[in-house]
Each structure stands twice: as structure tokens, then as C-alpha cells.
Amino acid sequence: MSVVDTRSPSGNAVFNLLAGTIQRIPPVVWFEWRRAFTVSRMAWMLSLMAFPPGLLLLVQMAARNDPRVEVISILIFILCACVVCMMSVFLWATPVLSSELEGRSWVYLAVRPYGPMAVLIGKYIVAVSWAIPVGLVSATLSVFVFPTEEPAHLIAVHGGLVLLSCLAYSALFLLIGVIAPKKCMVAGIIYTIIFEVAFAMIPAAVNMLTVQYRLRCLLIRWMEFDKALAERNPVFLSYFGDESSAWHVGVLLGMTLGYLIAAGIILRYREFTAAIETES
Amino acid sequence: MLLELKNVTRLYGTVIGVNDVTLSLAAGAHGLLGPNGAGKTTLLNLITGQLSPTIGSVRVLGMGSRSNPNLLRRIGYLPSTEGMYADVSALEWVTYLTRLQGFNAYEANGLALQALERVDLMEHMHRNISTYSRGMRQRTRLAQAIAHNPDLLILDEPFSGLDPIARHSMTSLLEGWIAEGRSLIIASHVLHEIESLTRSFLLLGSGRLLASGSTDDMNELLADVPSEVRIRVNKPRELAAELLRVGLVDAVKLIGTEDLSVSTALSAQLGRFLGKAVTEGEYAVSELHAVDDSLQNVFNSLMKIHRGSV
């Protein structure tokens, strides 16, 4: 019987923290996945998955002509990468900490070596791994609602956007949940409305701080709408910037990592115990 | 050294959880006693590293306690709140928490099985926790605390809500743990539960450490503190008057027609006086006993000393 010892006499605390956390992530993912398979959750996820293609089907039935590929693509982007992914990860990632605190189960995790960090990252992985398939299936079904010349390209673009959307939004909502565990859902909704909806639409430096802006830029680049938009009206470019796709992907992944690190630091140094309430 | 606290104060805003506590404990079993709100849970949270002291230092098993993975490997903690997932079985939950201690799946499963066997839950371990009785849930919680074979077991109100049979079962289990030479810190506000497990006590009141030591140490400390004695006698009014006249009691209270309750700091002299009175046929005493001869008396008296009323 042995514990994999992550202690090091030379004492590299960061290395030990990483090694200890990584070692404990698989049990968290396995355990949370196992708990997530409930009828209500499956029904909710299936409803979310069916929502964009269902809505697009109604749009198609009402439309007199087949819409242009730009319109189709923007609709799919809004419904899948934005609404479905955002809602899916919002419901998974935001209450990661609050559900444990409210259920008084946090204390059992907090007294395990590297337990809080492993739970945080493990639940992030679970949130992302549930949301991505939902978004991917939803986007794929949506693409086939309208007849297009290059469905594979559309699927690839929206698949990429779904992937990045889930990764970034999940980390963002996780951070909000750690910052404000008691009012995490309200804080998440307010943040989303103010920053990811309102500020993201303002053509100023502030919108570059939003996930929405990066995803929107990637849609325009990957679908090669930027040239057409510039020809039609150069003012559109202020909404999409002139950075490369790789830059936007890099920034999105950097934001994701930054949110996770910030959440981890807060979790490490903040005291979440409700000792004074449970005094008995 | 099992535990070393130096001038530890913990504030929650303007509320004091623990107030200037200094103590050191050697390996072994120790009881942490105090009424509700005394600061027991705060002290345990400081020991388990979930809280850091506002002032002072906490060292457990020779290590700093705040979020210390090396320390967390060596302690098992049973908190006062339930907080279990209702939708998993005891085996799944204990295995999961044991894996978070750093054991692989196979080892964790084996350790969880051992722990569940020890708390006598093998028969029900595959059932969802939501179907368990209070006693079974408490045993499951104890299993998660002992599964990884910690050097120090910390229990916060482990007997809370248990029926007499479950209490007995829990006591037997903890007696076995102590008999193995392992360390235990057990917090409770029910004194007799702890008395049967350990002779070493820490008494906490209003966040302060009122006293520490064995029951004998405390009795010595409280030698001059009045205790309550109940006397069943044929002439209680006359006896009360005489005891007050000779100055053997501080206060008397008549209860019914035969019983007399007296408060005295001179128990031995009172006993001799009554013995003589009975022998001489002056009074017929049919019953004589201290009302609160348990640790509760010690605790109440220490609180009185602390408040300056004694």
C-alpha cells in the first residue's frame, strides 16, 4: 500500500501543487461524471441540444428563399457557440463551489491534500466534457437544416467555435463562482449581460476583453466574411479587428488559462469554511 | 508533539471565534469540551487548516496547519455537519475521498472496504446514502475519516443525534482506535460521552481555554469551588437552619417536604457533620449525593471562576 508521494525535499511548491492536483483530477472527473448521469440532466441537455436546429427549422419553414450562407452561419454561431454553450457551461461551472458549500460537503474535500484544486479542475473538465458534445451535435444538426455548398466547412468552423466557447466560458463562470459563491448564479448572469452581451458589442478596447469578441472575430476570419464586409462597409471592421485567427485562438486559450489560475489562487488563499454558522 | 497553539486568536469580523488560546498536547486521546458556541468547531478548523489564525500560530504533528498537504495526509476529520452526497453509496463516497488522499483506485477501494467493515457497514455499503439512518450516515462519515489510516483523528460532535445503541457502537469503535495507540481529538458538549474515552480534557468557553488536564487536575483546581449536594432528611427545615448557623453551606434550598439542596465548598466537613448527626439520632438522613459529580460540574465551576463569580 503506498501513496504516490508528491513531496520533494528540495520543496518546489508549485511543482508539488501541480503534481498533486493532476494526480487527483481523474477520481474527481470519474466521480462527478457518474453523479451527472441523471434523467433530468440528460433531458435538459437533450433539450438544449435540440433547441438551435429546431429553431432554425422554424426559420427555414417561414423563409421564402434559402438564406445566404453568412446569415446561416451567424444564426448557428449565435444559437450554438453562444446560447447553447454558454447556458450549458453556465449551469455546470458556475455553481461548482456554491453547491459544495451549500450542501456542506466542501469540508470533506477541503481536508484532502490538494483536494480543493483537484475538485475545481476536475469539475471544470466535467463541465467542458458535457457541454462540448451538446454544442457539437447541435451545431452539426443546425448546419444540415439549410442546404449549403460546403457543410463540412461550416461544421468545422462551428465545431471549433463551440470548442473554444465551452473552454473559455466554463473557465470564466468557474472564476465567477469562486469569487462570489453565495450569489454565483446572479453574478454570472449580470456579468454575462453587461460584458459578454453589452460591452462585447461596443467597438472599443473594452470589447477585446470579452470572450464574445474573440469568438465573433474567429467566425468572421474562418468563414472569410471579413473581405466581403470590408468591401460593403469598412466600419464593420471595427467590430472584428484585424488580428489573425491564430492570435484570437491564442488569446482565448490564454484567457481560459488565466481564469483558471485566478480561480485556483482564490481557492488556495480564501477561507470558505462556514465555521461560525456550524458552531455546535 | 501532537498539537501546539501559541496565543491563537481567530476573529470573524468583530466576532471572536477563539480568543488567545495557548496549549500543547502530546500524542494520545484528548477531549475538547464546551457548550454550543464555545469555539470548538473554530478550533478544529484551525487545527485542520481550513482557517488561519488572525493572531498566533498553530502547529499540528510538528507542521503548520494552513492548507498543508503533508499534514492533511496524516489527519482524518469528521466535521459536525453531515454534508454527504445523497445520490452515491457509502462505498463510492469513501473510496472517492480516499482517492483524494492520493491513493490509486485499487488501494482506495481496499482501504474504503476496510474502513466500512470497521464501522460495520459492509451489509449496506452499496445502497445510496439517502436511504441510510442517522446512525448509518454517522458511521459512513467516520469511515471516510479513518479510511486512509491517519495518525490523528479529529471528531467534531461524533455522537450528535445518535440513538443509545449507535452511541455505544461509536464509543466501542473509538475505544478500539485509542487502544491501538493512535491519537484522537474529540469535541463534544455532552460530557459523559467523552469521559468514557479519555481522561485528558480541554475546556473551552466563549472562545477561551478555561482549563486543561485530567479530571483529577480539575477537581484539585476546583477544591474550593462550591458544589451542590442533595440531602433527603426527615427534618429538612431544621437541618437547613443548623447548616447555615454552623457555616458549612453557602446556600440552601428546600425541595418538597423531605429534600434539601445545599451549596457547599466544604463537602468533607459537611459529610462528617451529617455522619455525626445521624449517629446521634438527631436526624434521619436517607439519601445523600452530589447533584453534578460529572465533568459538567467542573465545567460550570470553571465558567464561574472565569466570569469572576467565584
Overview of the structural elements:
The complex is a heterodimer of chains A (280) and B (310). By secondary structure, chain A is an all-alpha fold. Chain A is built from 13 helices and no strands. Chain A has helices at 13-36, 39-62, 69-93, 96-102, 106-110, 115-143, 151-179, 184-198, 211-222, 226-232, 237-240, 245-269, 275-278. In chain A, helix 7 (151-179) packs across helix 8. Chain A is globular, with a radius of gyration of 21 Å. The two termini of chain A are 37 Å apart. Chain B has 310 residues and is an alpha/beta fold. Chain B has 11 helices and 14 strands. In chain B, the strands form 3 sheets. A 6-stranded mixed β-sheet of chain B has the order 6-7-8-3-9-10, with helices on both faces. In chain B, a hairpin with a 2-residue loop joins strand 1 (3-12) and strand 2 (15-25). In chain B, helix 3 (90-99) runs parallel beside helix 5 (134-146). Classes of the chains: A mainly alpha (280), B alpha/beta (310).
Q: What is the β-strand count of chain A?
A: 0
Number of strands of chain B: 14
Mean pLDDT of chain A: 88
Distance between the termini of chain A: 37 Å
By oligomeric state, this entry counts as heterodimer
Biggest β-sheet strands, sense, barrel of chain A: none
What level of helicity do the residues of chain B show? 25-40%
List the uncertain runs of chain B.
none
Helix-strand topology string of chain B? EEEHEEHEHHHEHEHEEHEHEEHEH
| Tally of structural domains of chain B | 2
Q: Which class best fits the helix and strand makeup of chain A?
A: mainly alpha
What count of structural domains of chain A? 1
Strand content of chain B: 25-35%
Mean pLDDT of chain B: 88
Number of helices of chain A: 13
Question: How would you briefly describe this protein structure?
Answer:
The complex is a heterodimer of chains A (280) and B (310). Helices cover 75% and strands 0% of the residues of chain A.
